[in-house]
Design a protein that fits this description.
- By secondary structure, the protein is of the alpha+beta class.
- The protein folds into 2 domains: 77 residues; 74 residues, OB fold (Dihydrolipoamide Acetyltransferase, E2P), CATH 2.40.50.
- Helices cover 48% and strands 29% of the residues.
- The chain has 4 helices and 5 strands.
- Strands 3-2-1-4-5 form a 5-stranded antiparallel sheet, with no helix packed on it.
- Strand 1 and strand 2 form a beta hairpin.
- Helix 3 packs across helix 4.
- The protein starts with a helix and ends with a helix.
């Protein structure tokens, strides 16, 4: 049986594939937990209509590069009629909001100053983590499938035994 070295190296997917798969599933799990936490947090908050009353610019320097980000300042009324003003923790460039824009707000009745703008940005961090975890899990699965395909081509477990013996002779 002729075994080419490149194919023998693809068998490494039997070892690396499960490792990458487990890492990916772990990251996926963390991302899902983060999403569930965000969902539960939003479920305890009350909705309100807000209005952008100001857009604050902040300049940040990173690696010698200066970037300006724009943060909306929103004003809204709670169910009790209290007027609350807060600055969003999410900035963008260019500004995603203009003064006078109407926005949906979510707030905790005990601490209305910690309100957030109800937008897709609430879900972005957990979505990124889920995407990264899914990517790693997919790469792990593909590595395992690729290694199994090579094994089947060589005759299954007997082929694997042959590869192990071949590597011992070279080593």
């Amino acid at each position: 049986m002729h075994v080419n070295i490149r194919s023998a190296n693809r068998i490494g997917g039997l070892l690396s594939g499960p490792i990458v798969l487990v890492i990916g599933l772990g990251i996926l799990f963390l991302g899902w937990q983060w999403r569930t936490f965000t969902q539960n947090q939003i479920a305890t908050m009350l909705p309100a209509e807000g209005k952008v009353v100001e857009v604050v610019s902040r300049t940040k320097t990173s690696s010698g590069e200066r970037k300006t980000y724009f943060y909306p300042v929103v004003e809204f009324r709670t169910a009790d009629g209290e007027s609350v003003r807060f600055e969003s923790s999410t900035g963008s460039n260019p500004s995603a909001y203009r003064v006078g824009d109407a926005v949906k707000v979510r707030y905790d009745p005990q601490t209305p100053q910690s309100a957030v703008i109800d937008s897709w940005e609430l879900w972005l961090p957990s979505s990124i983590v889920i995407g990264v975890g899914g990517f790693f899990a997919l790469i792990g699965i593909l590595a395992i499938l690729n290694a199994l395909a090579v094994l089947l081509k060589w005759g299954g477990l007997l082929g694997l035994l042959g590869i192990i013996l071949l590597r011992r002779k070279r080593g």
